[in-house]
């Protein structure tokens, strides 16, 4: 399913149990990198992380596409093999010669 924005994607990750919300203050320079490194090394790529309190006016989303399941979800396919067909379809569309008004006359 296509998402109308990142906020909808985050809500979907949350509802599927694929997101960890971190509400405690985390230093955006030193601590986010350490936490992310540990999570990404987990089997399956770990969960997506949403750091909600970084001392900045916006949250930080990390590892949103860190698993095949989340990549497929973001692309709106059931599995990543389905993306090959979508990419092939896109390239066919892009490589068709465009018809101009003068070529139709």
Count every helix, treating DSSP H or I runs of 4 or more residues as helices.
5
Helix/strand/pairing category: mainly alpha
This entry's quaternary arrangement is single chain
Termini, distance in Å?
A: 41 Å
- What's the Cα radius of gyration? 19 Å
Helix content: 40-55%
Strand content: 5-15%
Largest sheet properties: 3 strands, mixed
How would you characterize this protein structure?
The chain has 105 residues and is mainly alpha-helical. The chain has one domain. 45% of the residues lie in helices and 10% in strands. It has 5 helices and 3 strands; from the N terminus they run αβαββααα. It has helices spanning 6-15, 31-40, 68-75, 81-95, 101-104; strands spanning 19-22, 48-51, 60-62. The protein has a 3-stranded mixed beta sheet with strand order 1-2-3. Strand 1, helix 2 (31-40) and strand 2 form a beta-alpha-beta unit. The chain is elongated, with a radius of gyration of 19 Å.
Summarize this, please?
Helices cover 45% and strands 10% of the residues.
Supply the key terms.
mainly alpha, 3 strands, single chain, three-stranded mixed sheet, 45% helix, 5 helices
List the helices and strands and how they pair.
Blueprint lengths: L5 H10 L3 E4 L8 H10 L7 E4 L8 E3 L5 H8 L5 H15 L5 H4 L1
